[in-house]
Protein 1
Amino acid sequence: MKKDLISMEDLTLDEVKDYLVTAARVEEASLEERVKLLPGRIMAALFFEPSTRTRLSFESAMHRLGGSVIGFAAKDATSVSKGESFTDTIHTVESYSDILVIRHPGEGTGRLAAKESFLPVINAGDGSNQHPTQTLLDLYTIQKDLGKIEGLKIAFVGDLKYSRTVHSLIRALMMFNVTDFTLVAPESLRLPAHFMRTGQPGKFTFHETEHLEEAIRTSDVLYMTRIQRERFPDILEYEKVKDSYVLTAEMLEEAQEHMRVLHPLPRVNEIAYDVDKTKFAGYFPQARNGVIMRQAIILKHLGVSI
Amino acid sequence: MKNEKMLLIPKIDLGIVVDHIPAGMGIKILEIISQYEEIKEVPVSLGLNYESRRLGKKDLIKLQMEFLSPEIIQHISIVAPGVTVKAIKDYKVHSKVVVKAPQEIRNLLECKNPNCITNVEKHVETHFVSLGKDCKQVRCEYCERVFDLNELHTLVD
């Protein structure tokens, strides 16, 4: 039976761990070994909205495995602009490829494609709903950089209200028994309360603060996010909070030795460029891990073992 | 005594009785049923505030039709789980089912999230899953948003 990757909510802890193990195997394998894994296989990358990192990362992953890629990077260049329905596009493209990777602004498009198509479907972001491959690569990065996930103290900084990356990662970390979260956000961008109602009273601690310095001192991972201009109906509201938190190299002097700064990218100005040269900067390796994790995902969903 | 009560609304030789409706819900359920095209020409009787051993007071609806579609039963079940739907033949109860709160609701409710794909591609059947046994909160299977059941509109009109 075909296997899709649509939502982190569908995955058990064992399944998540299996992605991490597969990614580690991908990373251990040589480039020469990897490129022999998927010759002749075709991935369709259907990007109905612009996305540089996710699309290039998926394409790079498929090429690294010896497969090839077809697809489009914006809906203007497709039959969708002629009025073709999403489901018709899926049914057409499934005849041309072996696996579908879909990014779409509409929420639930990954699930719909998975129901409609006989091919495995990977959700590469559906509106503000799910982006499971980002969450998996974040988990892989944390495990790789800090040796474990369980029991770590993780701080999230910036837009905790709208960031689907943050929401999805918090849920996944809870599965791994991460119980201590520090949340640094301006008042208007705090984490929605329902995330903190876990149904297991006393197990998880959510420490909310507006002070970034405190989070730097106490955390093992500082997960920074961009405050997204497009989320604000009122530009004045955006201007008020956009520079709330700017991390600089100087601020990191009080961080623990092993601490890592992560960011899903793109950054705007929430991480100063002088942080890039410090040992704490984990965000570019994180992007590199994205290609590793996506190779693991493609292999698993095409049923090819490594 | 019992027979006199039964005469308050007419007995039917062939039809459907929606019974054990909590008192006060009868009119709402009638409104729901009436939205469906297949009910439009059917003779219907509505009984309100009958004595009931189980409920104290109850409402009931009689429909002179042979078969109530699963869509209508599903629709009743989300509004008034626990009602009984009886099929009557030759003035006797031929079969009956107690309607339970559904765990899944297909193609009946409209997702409130304007960005949900079910609101963009109208041919896609909506699909909600109940988060508890009582079906008070449901989650859209597509966009994964959670809603209180009573804030969602139905697709039938």
Protein 2
Amino acid sequence: MSTPVLLLIIPLIAGVGAFLLRRWQLATILTGVGTVLILTGLLAATDTQVLVNGAINGPFFDNTWVILERSFKLDQLSKDVLLILYSGVGFLFLFSLVLRQDSLFVPLVLLAVSPLAGTLIAESISTGTLFLVVGMVVITILIQGERAGSTLTSMRYFTLIVLVFPILLLIAWMAETSLSQYLAWMPFLLLVAFLILLFSFPFHIWVSPTISESKALVPVASFGLVQLVVVILCLGVIVENPVVYGNARLLQVLRASGAATIILATVLILTAPSISRLIGYLLMIDLGSTTVALGLGGKIGLELVCYLVMIRIIGLLMAGFGLGMIRRQFASDSGDTYLAFKVETLARRSPIGLALLIYGGFSLAGLPLTPGFAGRWTLLTIASSQYQWIGLIIVVAVVSAGIGLARMMLPNPAIQEETVHSFADETRALRIVAALLLAVGVIFALISPLMMSLSQNLVNML
Amino acid sequence: MGNIPTIYEFLEYLDFLRGFPAAYVVLITASLILIFRDWRWSILALLIQYLVVGLLLADVMPPHLAFMKVIIGIFICLILFITAQQVNWGRLPEDVTAEEAVLLGQERLLRFGPYMLPTDAPFRIFLGLAVALSVGALTQKAAFHLPFVDNHLNLAVFGLFAMGLVIMVLTSEPMKSGMGFLTLITGFELFYSTVEQPLAGMVIFAVISLSIALAIAYLTQVRHSFPALFD
């Protein structure tokens, strides 16, 4: 039995099953968690070590599959990344038990897992592109969810996917044919593809509205888990074409775009009208930092990119969960959470939610004592040694993030208690999970060297 | 009972349309998608586009694969048609008045002689003509000639790509913007089919196009759902 086939088919079947069960939240979530456990078990049972005679077939499961002259192979790199992906998805499902999401959340995430796995196990870039784009199309629907009305945010995301698809296919064609007369175009195409896929300036415009308009845990999938797969695909292209990646102009524009994203986010943070937008701008700082890291070039840049994306998942999980808990304090959980409330009220009604939101926001900004600090500090030290202006921008961004979050926490005497919407009681389970998540965040802040060595291992395997 | 003609006989029958005539028809259909606001006419134009693109693809891949592309295009148009019908073609439901539906504004109309046309119709016609003429002029130059592609295909590729881009950026309405996505993807497919294995390329674009159509259908439904009307 071929593992790649099962990795592609099982989530699809489970997704359809979860869709049919969507009226019963517990059954849907159990389907999702069960699927993740099965997939993880499948990975564990598949041997990826090359034997002496070159064969890689395990006793029960093969790790290769060929169809229409396209091959899929589960190697150690894709196995490790898939484990991270499935872990993240599994925790998302578990958290959705206490922090209710759309009825389509679990089915759509399962449906997205299949093509994302296909992206990682496809051996050719063009096949990986196909699966990545299909996965991102599913994420488009996840972003919209069951929210009726404006589709602006999801359409913007959709537009970016459609624009990047031909570019990636062209890159794949150029890389696979290696025709010298077209290789000159490759850096330019790579640049545009990176800027779109990493949501850097000028393709950043949809980031903040996504946080505002989608459910609390959706950004973890769209900006965390999907981004991890995107980064691995991009790093694979880079490693196969080191000369192209070494193009000085390409790296320069990447650094400039990342810096522009950070600057824009820095300015917007100081005037953020709502908590959701604030988190969105903090995320933009992280996205810009990732692009700057890619623009540093070399192996260290690639390792840093990988690390930043993995840590972003933790930050988004904490901030998203906290945001979801705070949104529950309003009568309706649709729409934005404007700063038309007393922080003291929230701190009294949802202290852990507020703490989680702030800590997650700090992590996205890269403030000290958070999981995001190590990556930001490493980026700062490396960037400052070569490009002082980038180091200055990062420092100003981090300070601005702190000011933005502090601004949110300042008491607002103009707001009367009567203007606050009705409250929803927090369940004990919600508080326990939130506290655990906070503890996990602190642990990740302490084990940052381990996470860095994990990202180094992943890059070494490319 | 007469025999059903084979694909090759169909191609022979439509031989007069192959080459530059097909490229011009494709360009016209893309312009019509841009110009028409009425979804019925736009979907019809998209359907004709897919039928004629099949003819163009028959120049670069085996005819039976090009025929599969036409079938997929018909499925896509069917998905869009059913979706559009379910949301009353983007108009207000018949039992909802304009005062009740706060989100969907009435389309502004101007009288041109005996006809009532949308106010932006002259702009769209001008834009369509401008893009078509620009594409026609640019593809005459050697610098805009794509590798491995014949002249008429070159015109069709650039025409579809440019029109698709313009349609995409002109509106955020999922149905119309989605047709722009599909037009752009079709244009790129014409080029990619010449450089990649035909079967693999066809599968890639079939999956992507169908995924886009399904996503567009969903987004259109939520955009025009009843809760959205009264929000």
